[in-house]
Amino acid sequence: MTQFTRRNFIKAAGGAAVAAGAAGFPMVSFGASKKVVVVGGGMGGAAAAKYIRMMDSSIEVTVIEANKHYYTCFMSNEVIHGRRSIDSIRFGYTGLAGHGVKVVHDIVTGIDANKQTVMTKGGHHFKYDRCIVAPGVDFKWEKIEGYDAKVAEDIPHAWKAGSQTVTLRKQIESMKDGGVVAICPPPNPFRCPPGPYERTSLIAAYLKKNKPKSKIVVLDPKPKFSKMGLFTAAWEKYYGYKSSDSMIDWQGTPKGSDDNVLKSVDAKTRTVTTGFNELKADVLNIIPAQKAGKIAFAAGLTKGDWCPVHHNTFESTIHKNIHVIGDAAIQSPLPKSGYAANSEAKVTAAAVVALLNGKDAPTPSWVNTCYSFVHPGDGISVAMVYNLVDGKVSKVKGSGGLTPGYAKSTMEMRAREEQYALSWFKNITHDTFG
Amino acid sequence: MKYRTIVQAMLALSGVALGAAANAATPSGEMLGNTCAGCHGTDGISTGPAIPTIGGLSNDYLVDAMMEYKTGERGSTIMTRIAKGYTDDEIKAMSKFFSGKPYVGNKQKVSAKMAKTGAKLHKKYCEKCHEDGGTSAEDDAGVLAGQWRPYLQYTMEDFHSGARTMPKKMKKKMKAMMDKHGAKGEQALLDYYAGQE
């Protein structure tokens, strides 16, 4: 049976008939028929659901999420360092329920864009007027011989926080002094661009204090990375970087070369083979190349590895009435960060609410703020304001940028940045799940 | 949108070039304000421990603060970088949005003895501008009661270092307070503010 959504009804009946509708078709309940289904309850999905309800409580919002809890990727490096508990980055869905969001724990297996229906593994069908897909990232396991989801339980990527975060922490904790930690960051684009380098910094901070003879080798398939100048300045300050006794050995890869591109891993001996060399590690952290989450492919929302969207509404350019937000979307120059996902969620929420009420989507605005810890007591950041120019997300000229370099920024200011980062964590998680 | 198009057309005719960024209408205060919530909390209510609550502050205070960040007159770690991303109209719109929200203070654990001393010092040196024990937004001087203590501390450090300039009246009163009661007096004041709702 065709569902009588308010929007379809307006389309079918035309404006004049709608005016008569209230009197002429008393059986049709407009208010109850506006349905939004959100696929994925991470940083993007949860924030979108909450903000739609805050903006228009007449809209029925259902979040379908596989897990009972979400572990934030941000701050998970603090768990690996050891100064934060895994429980402190775990968030449930009672806050969303408090906003009247229906939360269903199930796995979405498909989306029928024509029938406007989301299907789940549990055998349920959810009708929607608009759907928001926020599946995050999936891994390109096939790029690394000998590495898959099963191997990753022992040689963790820890790039989706949770049990693997704890595994990596335990491995570093039980490593002997003088051991080698090898970190293999992914090629661009990937979730949380400064993340592997914050991880390097915080593991170094732990080792420096507890196992000072140990080394960290970073086999990077890229020639440079996010906040590179600030990270390397901090590594010089704290970990002897560039000296003969450096705790951190970052090995980049020049453009066009495959020097530190990971080819294969021998799980038994924890040996990785790159285009140039072989390295045996005591603790191995492999972060594979990434693509949009599985459901984005199943629903036909992808072009290449990611999902193309209209930037004013984040509606898919492939399927109408489906919006894709967060890491899975092609949102550049917005980065694949938690803050960007939160910002995209609110722009999308406002667009969805306006469109469901027969209005134009409002003019969008986005912000990204991203903090990293380089050492306990020392934080750095990057920020940017974005607007819509010619239909595309665009950096506002003159805005944003990095913490001033180590020669220009004082320790006091960077200590404040650490405190602001801790506040940011509390506020963004409350803004999303609270 | 339409208004903009007409204005653009008129300006084009009159030979005034309009920047590319002007091809969309100014975002609403709500749209702009929501981007701030990632750091400052939903509706500008910060859950702490250091980022200040901005919801419920006065419109004038918020506009002034953002304009000072934008021009660099007021120093900061990150706000000077972010404020440069907004037009004056956008700053007005977001300030109006946050000033329309309720102020929700956060009562923090402080030394009761210090707070008591602080209350007395407040009455003598600060109450004239920061009315009603620092709880009023209407005086445009910034709400202090229930604001996060590390932020209050940073603010005072910035005033002393010159990263932020004290208004004339405040400078005079603060000098008198510091001369007589010193750094401990200042800490007592902060305890008084942070210890309120």
From TrEMBL, chain A:
InterPro entries hit by this protein: FAD/NAD-bd_sf (IPR036188), FAD/NAD-binding_dom (IPR023753), FAD/NAD-linked_Rdtase_dimer_sf (IPR016156), FCSD_central (IPR049386), FlavoCytC_S_DH_flav-bd (IPR015323), FlavoCytC_S_DH_flav-bd_sf (IPR037092), SQRD (IPR052541), TAT_signal (IPR006311)
Pfam families for the chain: FCSD-flav_bind (PF09242), FCSD_central (PF21706), Pyr_redox_2 (PF07992)
Domain Sulfide dehydrogenase [flavocytochrome c] flavoprotein chain central: 165-288
Domain Flavocytochrome c sulphide dehydrogenase flavin-binding: 362-433
Domain FAD/NAD(P)-binding: 34-147
NCBIfam families from the UniProt entry: TAT_signal_seq
Name the UniProt record assigns to this protein: Cytochrome C
Organism encoding this protein: Solemya pervernicosa gill symbiont
Lineage, top ranks: Bacteria, Pseudomonadati, Pseudomonadota, Gammaproteobacteria, sulfur-oxidizing symbionts
Automatic annotation (TrEMBL), chain B:
PANTHER family given in the database record: CBB3-TYPE CYTOCHROME C OXIDASE SUBUNIT FIXP, CYTOCHROME C4
Listed name of the protein: Cytochrome c4
Organism (species): Solemya pervernicosa gill symbiont
GO MF: electron transfer activity; heme binding; iron ion binding
Keyword Heme: yes
A Pfam family matched in the record: Cytochrome_CBB3
Binding site for heme c 2: C126, C129, H130, M174
Record InterPro entries: Cyt_c-like_dom, Cyt_c-like_dom_sf, Cytochrome_c4-like, Cytochrome_c_Oxidase_Subunit
Superkingdom in the source lineage: Bacteria
PTM info: Binds 2 heme c groups covalently per subunit.
Cytochrome c domain residues: 24-102
Binding site for heme c 1: C36, C39, H40, M79
Alphabetized Gene3D superfamilies for the sequence: Cytochrome c-like domain
Keywords of the record: Electron transport, Heme, Iron, Metal-binding, Periplasm, Signal, Transport
SUPFAM superfamilies in alphabetical order: Cytochrome c (SSF46626)
GO cellular component, one term: periplasmic space
Subcellular location, principal: periplasm
Localization terms from the record: Periplasm
Signal sequence, start to end: 1-24
